[in-house]
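Form 12-C: Joint structure prediction
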Amino acid sequence: MSKQDGSARQVSAASVDSSTATILHVDLDAFFASVELLEHPHLVDRPVAVAGRSARSVVTAANYPARKFGVRSAMPLAQALRRCPNLIVLEPHFEKYRMLSAKVMAIFDEMTPMVERLGIDEAFLDVAGAGGVHGTPADIGELIRSRVRVETGLACSVGAASTKFVAKLASGRAKPDGMLVIPDEQTLAFLHPLPVGALWGVGAATESSLLARGLRTIGDVAATPVSVLQRTVGAAAGNKMHELANGIDPRPVTVGNPEKSIGHEVTFEVDQRDSELLLRELLRQSNQVAVRLREAGVTARTVVLKLRYDDFSTLTRSRTLAEPTDLGRRIHEEVSASYRALGAHPPVRLIGVRVEQLSSGGSGQIGLWDEDDSWRDAERTIDDVSSRFGRGLLGPASLLRRADVVADPRQQPEK
Amino acid sequence: MKFQANRDIFNDAVSFAVKLLPQRTTLPILSGVLIEATEDGLVLSSFDYEVSAQTTVVADVEETGRVLVSGRLLAEIANKLPQAPVNFTVEQSRVLVSCGSANFTLLSMPVEEYPSIPQVPGQTGLLPANEFAEAVAQVSVAASRDDVTPVITGVQLEIADNRLSLVATDRYRVAVREIDWDAAKSTIEAVTALVPARTLQEVGKTFGHSGTIEVGITNTDDRELISFTADRKTVTSLLIKGNFPPVRRLFPEVVDNYAVMNTAELVEATRRVSLVLEREAALRFSFTADGLTLEATGSEQAQASETIDAILTGTDTVVSLKPQFLLDGLGAVRSEFVRISFTKTENPNKPGPVLITSQTSKEQIGSDSYKYLLQPNLLLR
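Section 2 - Result
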């Protein structure tokens, strides 16, 4: 779809009638990069990316001037530097992002209780019931934008529409720092000229199979019989795609767990084959993930191992637990089992642990027995010690040597 | 192949043979029922590599042979046939079923590809059918239905000292019952077998009125199989591999804090009060000298409460129980009164489990050995 650099930006006139566009999608613009730039205001107009300091790290975020050079998030930093030799690289500060995200989400919560958080930097708001208090959806959108700017210094873009799918597309078109309102009756006029790649759920593979059938725009998809779409992309996806292309998206804004998954991953300085080292890295990440689960007061039921090999091929393996957990030891057991089941493998460039199916365990249901009782005590104790004296003082003995130091003795640890 | 059979006998045999067939199978051939016409009568079998069912019935066999036909379709046809003798003929790949004025033509399935039905192990012992059927129904309510942990989707059968105990759990409750076991001619005195709960439930229902059930267990490394035989019907099942959790140690040895209620009253009150609850939520049960008060708080400020008679021995106790888990236990005790005992716990963050047992009257403990242990939820307020 758009090149994400703001070149296709489209915003609404102030006079637009927004009364039917009651679903807002609010997205912070180049969030991590913008936060870093708050402390480096003189760099605002220069290309800036947020990335770790290592030569092999990937771009976490890029500001709009950097995007004009083709710098994208998840791109290896080396590649980004080739595209934009003058790129200024700032180190990420995740605690700051979390803090500012909470501030922004609190502003949303003051507008309406119907807030569905999507990750750290975006949310859907259903403002159908908030009209009497704060004005039309467009008024609320502008109010949010000005409050976010005044209270955090950050820019955000707002899409307003009658469905979630169109609202999200609209905020994407409004970037950076804009608002686009699509009244219900203009939904199809807005949607149909867009390329098929803009449809929710259409990735590279689906896009090329649609293009192969001569379907270039969302309008083409809307005009295609469902049965033809179903033959191309499968029964359920074809049906869904046809509905979306016709502006139908019945999904409501659901107030729920802000995070759908929690994960950590690391790209090694040097590709790794040593399974002992990889398992130790999995233990470290499992513990980090578990700490975040416990901090958020949630448990996870699915544990995912992610590996990227030296040829950039990526695989994931997920396992479902009998009982949801928030323990690093359980998570490590599962990812280790997934890892061991792979057998011999090419050198590993990136390894990661992610947990999904999060629930806040509010039912109070507990099992008659729990194999992990003693580990739970141990990990809670580590939490207690850490909250008083800081993280990293107490942990598994196997992690005393840092994985990346063992990996390449020539590299000095960063600290 | 050609035979004539009594309509009711044929229907009964077909419905038995297909009962344990899986709802869906990756191999279409396994959805078939194998019909063999022999000199000794008619043998109907089904097998999905885990569970097999086989029965032998009388029939006038004019021409022997074997054929495989779609199990569910044949069962539906047999069930709807008019009251008249059933004529069954196979001509090449077509199966003709005629009965009175009704005629059916079915396509047969490739019988030569059908797996061979497992051999029944030698007899290990005998069970009283009705008692076994009751015990299976009482215990299997507690078995897990979650395939993530296969070992607890089974019922553990433990045979020792001429007793068979059945144990099942889903981590939230454990149900246990003992019945008589007659080792008969067998030399095997102690053995355990972990049998899928679903299969065992079907066995209980099928053989409940059969007098005595013959049981055979093969528990060697390469083949782990159990068989149940009665009334010329046999069901075999592979055993679930793995170690059943040591749940018996969870049962308290002594309890001096308990309450006795009328079972039906408690069931009715629990059903009523839980109407306002959201799914998965728990009810609060307060046991005092004045009786038992059930309280529920649902969404949108909906509330409900009810107090029923209870005779409390020991101290006042409050527990939070999931209504369905309690109802499962109350439905399984099968006695007019029920005793709920409260156990102590060393862990201050976890309430002790409650034990549900039968009472024939307010004072008299039930004579059966059924025990249902249930972990209460955390008290959230």
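Section 3 - Comments
Helices of chain B lie at 7-19, 71-80, 129-140, 197-207, 263-273, 323-333. Chain B has three domains: 2-113, 125-249, 251-374.
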